[in-house]
Amino acid sequence: MPQRNLQKVQKHITKKRGAVGSMHENSRDAHRLRRAGARDERLIKHGQNVGKGRRPYLDRIWYFYEAAESLEDPLSETELSEMVIKYINRDEEELTQLQQERRKGRPPVRREEALTQRVETEQKEFKTGFWMPDLSDLDVFLGLKNWNKQWSGLSQLKFVRLTQAGDKQSSSFPPKSIS
After folding, report:
1. pLDDT tens digits, residue range 7-52?
2. In a 3-state reduction of DSSP, which class is residue 160?
3. Burial letters 132-141, b for 16+ CB under 10 A, else e
4. Which domains are delineated in the chain?
5. CA atoms within 13 A on the CB side of 124
6. Which of 47, 73, 83, 130 is most buried, by the most CB atoms less than 10 A from its CB?
């Protein structure tokens, strides 16, 4: 998709006039080229922002995808809770290593702060409802195993919010605050 509009405009102008570099800088065609270039830049920037927003959810689903590949049967409620706890504590070793390397009285490094903040937010989310694919459902379990590793392929799966108490509520895709 990048630079698609710009290429179309350039192709149209070269068919009409010849070389793109031979036009006057304030001509109508030059303005069209600048607008098309700016439009393509906006689309690229928007795509990057959308991808950045989806990254945490894709990482989460990727973790459950890898875990589901090694399993043969759907999970029970307790196994789902255990898997979420493993997911939340996935960087525990790195966090403890960073804490041990830090000298007494020194502030934590940025990586340590980011890890502790992420763990805290995921634990809060787990108390209220952790968004994840419903691996206790056979169709979702098999669908996740056959996932094409694209964001658009996730719309066919069923998602739930699993609480620390073991309650499970159906959720929507893509995730919203509390769905």
Report:
1. 888 787 887 776 666 777 888 888 888 898 899 999 999 989 988 9
2. strand
3. bbbbbbeebb
4. 1-57 (no CATH), 71-179 (1.20.1440.170)
5. 8
6. 130
